[in-house]
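Protein modeling request. Please complete all fields; requests missing the sequence field cannot be processed.
Requester role: graduate student
Desired output: 3D structure, token encoding
Chains: 1
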Amino acid sequence: MTKNKLLYQQLCEKEKNIPLFLQYSWFNELYDNTEWDVAVERKGNNIVGILPFVITRKKSFKIITPQFLSPYQGVWLKYPEGQKYASKVGFEKEVINGLIDQLPKVAAFKQNFLPEFTNWMSFNWKGYEQSTRYTYLIHDLSDTEKIFKDFKENIRREIRKAEKSVVVEVIEDINLMFQMKLKIYEENNETYPIPLNKLKTIHSYCQTNNCGELLVAKDNEDNIHSVLFYVWDNQSAYYLHGVTHSKYKTSGSMSLLLWEAIRRSSLKTKAFNFEGSMVESIERYFRGFGGEQTPYFQISKTDSKVLKLLNY
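Delivered output (312 residues):
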């Protein structure tokens, strides 16, 4: 184990509010030791910033790129207590500059940063680009009755309809989701990009660390209508992955599963993140659940002239 990885591991053992997707154990479990690394910035003996990343290959090029089912990456900062705003911005600049300088030389970099990360100027000054993307967040899960009232009428109607025809259960067979995804992609003449072993690894990690559940909606004949995978940390829950059988698209089962995930999340954490989408139809659907449209940054840089020509 490298020194930075050891420091990262020690930090995550002490800090309880590091998001799930930036946890040492998440990277260590999901990726081979040679596939990932972390930049660590320190002041004295204190760690003040981390930037973990996964290195993959695109043909002969080494690149840092987003990974399936890891919707957010990026920088996490440990702010000094009682810091004034002007000092806070200066602190961000200094720490983030240090993290960027530690990144390995790669042909291209791209990461989706957590919504809490709002100051990307250091990246801009070092030649990176930024694209704003959006998710929907329910910031306060304490009043589920109010949350339900804030849903659009069509979402509430779908949920009530589904409650009459399906039941929701927690299951442990991630293979069920995989097979349903395969079928949906095949029907659309597409290739499902996530291998079964990756799904199994993530689901097993969540079971071991009590940070995720697999929900299924099925009718009284045991027909599976929808499956939903959601995860959580101390700050938020996240819709991670889902699928609806093409035969039951109008049953309202996915809306019911999302509502059940929100209700169950209210007992575990503070907020619910729909983990957004820039696809118009999906955005419209998630918007119906009453969350607040929230921007997050996709930060990128392509150093390879060949990849630039290929419009990486």
